[in-house]
Design a protein that fits this description.
The complex is a heterotrimer of chains A (289), B (369) and C (286). With 289 residues, chain A is mainly alpha-helical. Chain A contains 14 helices and no strands. Chain B has 369 residues and is α+β, with helices and mostly antiparallel strands. Chain B is 27% helix and 34% strand. Chain B is built from ten helices and 20 strands. The longest helix of chain B has 18 residues. By secondary structure, chain C is mainly alpha-helical. Chain C has one domain: MetI-like (MetI-like fold, Orthogonal Bundle), CATH 1.10.3720. Helix content of chain C is 75%, strand content 0%. Chain C starts with a helix and ends with a helix. The relative contact order of chain C is 0.13. Classes of the chains: A mainly alpha (289), B alpha+beta (369), C mainly alpha (286). At the B-C interface, strand 6 and helix 5 of B face helix 10 and helix 11 of C.
Chain lengths: 289, 369, 286
């Protein structure tokens, strides 16, 4: 009976708006989303191709842009795996064990989300800058962290820190410890248990977290901007390259690079939606930010 | 308030949940809609409330046609199976809600709303809990808040959807008795839906037995239990056994033997014999009776339940044998039903009735194999 | 590695047969400390070493005050706008079925996924006086880009998904029978929405507001392109931090950062309080 009751919208329902109200609400929602989300996206691509495909390809082939793309890939290739290992470790400890201070630790992991990206960069400037405790020591030994790749990587790790962990913790908590205990009782070692029991259970959630982490790592602007030093061809990531080109009124170039980042965002969204659609329960209901 | 439901049908996407149902309810009556899940009883209740609109037919509240009135205009008190309490409101605000949303000339002062709500909470024995929030109450208490909230609007009819469905057995029995008391005290015309025959038979003035979107029988508890009009009702209410038989020359035959049962005016041909396991007369061997070999036997309270295999096709039926009866220890038992009914076999209603019985785990399935 | 475990507070409450507790927790704590805690503590320590008078002088400098006011005021208004439209969008996505709904639902996350710099230049281009939208307003003398209004646009953009994604799941959980109950009690649709549905969503809406607000306060990338960055008028606090850093004025940058951190953490605390309160009072969080 419950199943058939779902189809009641056909005549007149006591618990819905009339068609006119419904139409207006849908129109307002779509209008708002159209203006605020769709138009900016369209603008990126129209501007990128405003001067034709060849100008677009030229802009991307420019050495500085290419080195920015390379640097962005490099930074993500370092930051994402590190946060992945951290996320899995933290989720294992938090979800599979009980200990005091667990809730506090979970809050601390979320901390970077509530810090302004600029401050995320600033903390490393204060830590490694010339006026800090270790700054002069680093300088004497010729170790460059700020305004160089290590600083960019650190700032990126900071801002993308919580992504994997916060996807995995609720998921692994839901799954409990019964599967792992069963595997151990059957004689599996700890590592075998993790690799053959836990990992298959969390793989889609893990992929989901990695996806979001990667999108943010490649797109981060504020934090990276503070620590990068903006040296063309050396310490400019793609978002920084976008800024420089834009400020030089090279709009076609700026939007060409921006279009790659927008494409990355779209691909991320597409895979994310697919994951939620296909493996909704396997990535848990906690798929929020 | 008299209710009159005439030829009401309800279709969901071309599936008929209710087919031309008619029922008259007298003012002040307590009516149970009883049936297995999928029988259309909740749909029926929702149509009366105006939560769904009928595809066809008329619903009269007294003399007034309510069929096309909105749920707000009908002024019915509805108690949902899940209670549907407003969880962000206190108990008092929940009960007073219906009065507080009145507009224009019907507007009621706050103090008066409060007074009436407190009065109702007193009636449902929840005084002192008015400042609690729903999640701070037990299931039984929530149920009573829901009832008080429905009664607060002085409804023309009170409708309850599986009112005790979510409660455990103990609370259920207490609330059942209590609901009857409330009903007798307030005199609301009340219709409740249940799949629990014990609840329906004990509580209601009249029971409406529903199956497959139709009303099978309407009557007092004695009527539906002692004089079921269809195989479905016989099978659904109380325990029963049945056996395919044949009617010839006003006699009931099983295989090639007459059973010594007078079929009266029943039409000749294939039929189904229904009887209750305890309504049998045990015999010492027989010429004109039923006899079978014991297939299973189990002790149930003060009697023994025996499953017999009867006839060439080894039909299974269940009967009750007193513990001290000599037959209890035999491997072959003969008996004859004392009270029984026969229904023409092959009829649509009989076979569809079976399907529902098997689906509903609460019901003892007939032993026909 | 096991230093954290030796502290009495970290003792396990329940014995478990699962291995790896010490290793994973140890690694997580060390990594967390190195990447997040120690660097953040550095900000606090540096601003504490400024001394109160110096700190107060920087924090109450008119340019700083204005920047903070613009960041927090803008974030507040943007979060309000997002509460209204975010709740409406969540409602439409949860309750109505129309072609393209899934696509729209997926698109709501765009501001999460789109790099802020990209959003920034796109918005600046759109709302510039010669842009698609800016040119519609220009004839009326309304300038959006390069004014505080532009900041608002950018902050609305980045905050929207926070409200939608916080409210949406709670909305999906609303029991239809609760609305039906309100209807049987005589409430018309607006009364049901205002008195039954929205109050039930209040904790989620408040949380969404706080999240959108917190994000908007610290936002940098999407704002600076459209803001115009005129001191005292359209200069946001994060930008002022960057400017101070570029001037090698670490003291001022640190002081502004710690004010922002303090307020952000206060907002975080408020979110947790809302949820705890809601759970205690109504038996559900958000």
């Amino acid at each position: 009976m419950a199943a058939s009751r779902r189809g009641t919208a056909t005549i007149r329902s006591a618990v819905s708006e009339n068609p006119a109200t419904r139409g207006i609400l849908i129109a307002v929602a779509l209008g708002f989303l159209g203006v605020f989300l769709l138009l900016p996206l369209l603008a990126v691509f129209t501007q990128a191709f405003a001067k034709g495909v060849s100008a677009y390809l030229e802009a991307l082939a420019e050495p500085d842009s290419r080195s920015a793309i390379r640097l962005t890939l490099l930074v993500a290739a370092i930051a994402v795996p590190l946060n992945l290992v951290f996320g899995v470790s933290a989720a294992w400890a938090i979800a599979k064990f009980d200990f005091k201070g667990k809730a506090f630790l979970t809050t601390l992991i979320d901390l970077p989300f509530s810090v302004s990206p600029v401050i995320s960069g600033l903390v490393y400037v204060l830590l490694f800058g010339s006026s800090s405790l270790i700054g002069p020591w680093l300088m004497r030994h010729g170790i460059q962290i700020l305004f160089a790749v290590p600083g960019i990587v650190l700032a990126t790790i900071f801002v993308t820190f919580p992504f994997v962990a916060r996807e995995l913790i609720p998921l692994m908590q839901d799954q409990g410890t019964a599967d792992e205990e069963a595997a151990l009782s059957l004689g599996a070692t700890g590592w075998q248990t993790f690799r053959r029991v836990t990992l298959p259970n969390i793989k889609w959630g893990l992929l989901y977290g990695v996806l979001l982490c990667n999108a943010r790592a490649m797109g981060e602007f504020g934090a990276v901007s503070v620590v990068s030093g903006h040296i063309r061809g050396l310490t400019n990531t793609m978002p920084l390259q976008v800024e420089i080109l834009y400020n030089e009124y090279n709009f076609a170039g700026a939007f060409a690079v921006a279009s790659l980042l927008a494409l990355l965002a779209l691909v991320t969204l597409a895979i994310k939606t697919l994951l939620e659609f296909r493996y909704g329960s396997a990535i848990s209901g906690a798929a929020r930010h | 308030m008299d209710l009159s439901i005439r030829q009401v049908r309800k279709e969901f996407d071309h599936f008929a949940a209710l087919e031309d149902v008619s029922l008259d309810i007298r003012s002040g009556e307590l009516i149970a809609l009883l049936g297995p899940s999928g029988s259309g009883k909740t749909t029926f209740l929702r149509l009366i409330a105006g939560l769904d609109m009928p595809t066809g037919g008329t619903i009269l509240f007294g003399e007034e046609d309510a069929s096309r009135k909105s749920v707000q205009e009908r002024n019915v008190g509805f108690v949902f199976q899940s209670y549907a309490l407003f969880r962000h409101m206190t108990v008092l605000d929940n009960v007073g809600f219906g009065l507080s949303v009145r507009k224009g000339a019907e507007r009621i002062a706050r103090a008066e709303i409060r007074r009436r709500a407190l009065e109702l909470l007193d009636l449902v024995q929840l005084s002192g809990l008015e400042k609690r929030y729903p999640h701070q109450l037990s299931g039984g208490q929530r149920q009573r808040v829901a009832l008080a909230r429905a009664m607060a609007i002085e409804p023309r009819v009170l409708l309850l959807d599986e009112p005790f469905g979510a409660l455990d057995a103990q609370v259920r029995r207490e609330l059942r008795r209590w609901l009857r008391e409330i009903h007798d005290a307030t005199g609301h015309t009340t219709v409740f839906v249940t799949h629990d025959q014990e609840e329906a038979l004990e509580l209601a003035d009249r029971v409406v037995v529903m199956n497959n979107g139709r009303i099978e029988q309407v009557g007092a508890a004695d009527d539906v239990y002692d004089r079921p009009v269809s195989p479905f009702v016989f099978g659904f209410i109380g325990e029963s056994s049945n056996l395919p038989v044949r009617v010839e020359n006003r006699q009931v035959w099983f295989d090639d033997r007459p059973l010594g049962l007078d079929a009266g005016d029943a039409a000749g041909g294939d039929a189904l014999l229904y009887f209750r396991p305890h309504d049998v007369e045990l015999l010492e061997g027989c010429g004109g009776c039923l006899a079978g070999t014991v297939a299973a036997s189990r002790r149930v309270a003060e009697t023994r339940r025996v499953e017999l295999e009867i006839g060439v096709k080894r039909r299974r039926v269940e009967i009750e044998v007193p513990l001290d009866h000599p037959a209890a220890s035999r491997s072959r038992i003969a008996f004859r039903p004392k009270r029984w009914r026969i229904f023409p076999n092959g009829g649509k209603s009989a076979s569809t009735g079976m399907r529902h019985l098997e689906r509903d785990a609460n019901i003892l399935a007939p032993t026909e194999s | 590695m096991t230093a954290g475990l030796a502290r009495p507070g970290w003792r396990m409450k329940r014995l478990s047969v699962l291995p790896g507790f010490g290793l994973t927790l140890g690694f997580a704590l060390v990594y967390l400390s190195m990447i997040v805690l120690i660097p953040l503590a550095g900000v606090v320590w540096r601003s504490a070493s400024l001394g109160w008078p110096e700190f107060w002088r920087i924090a109450t400098d008119p340019r700083t005050l204005n920047a903070l006011k613009i960041s927090f005021g803008g974030a507040f208004i943007a979060a309000l706008v997002n509460v209204v439209f975010g709740t409406l969008i969540a409602w439409v996505l949860v309750r109505y079925r129309f072609p393209g709904r899934r696509l729209i639902d997926a698109m709501v996350d765009l501001p999460f996924a789109l790099p802020t710099a990209v959003a920034g230049i796109a918005l600046a281009t759109l709302y510039a006086p010669n842009g698609w939208i800016g040119s519609l307003f220009a004839p009326f003398g309304v300038k959006i880009a390069f004014t505080p209004l532009g900041i608002l646009i950018a902050l609305i953009f980045i905050g929207l998904p926070f409200v939608v994604r916080t409210v949406q799941p709670v909305m999906e959980e609303i029991d239809r029978e609760v609305e039906e109950a309100a209807a049987t009690l005589g409430a018309d649709r607006p009364q049901t929405v205002w008195r039954v549905i929205l109050p039930g969503l209040a904790p989620a809406i408040l949380t969404g507001f706080a999240l959108a607000f917190a994000r908007a306060v610290g936002e940098y990338g999407s704002v600076i392109f459209i803001a115009g960055n005129i001191p005292y008028v359209s200069e946001i606090a994060p930008l002022l931090i960057v400017i101070r850093l570029e001037e090698y004025n670490y003291a001022a940058a640190t002081a502004i950062a710690s004010v922002m951190l303090a307020i952000s953490f206060a907002v975080l605390l408020v979110i947790n309080l809302i949820q705890a309160w809601s759970r205690r009072r109504f038996g559900y969080g958000s």
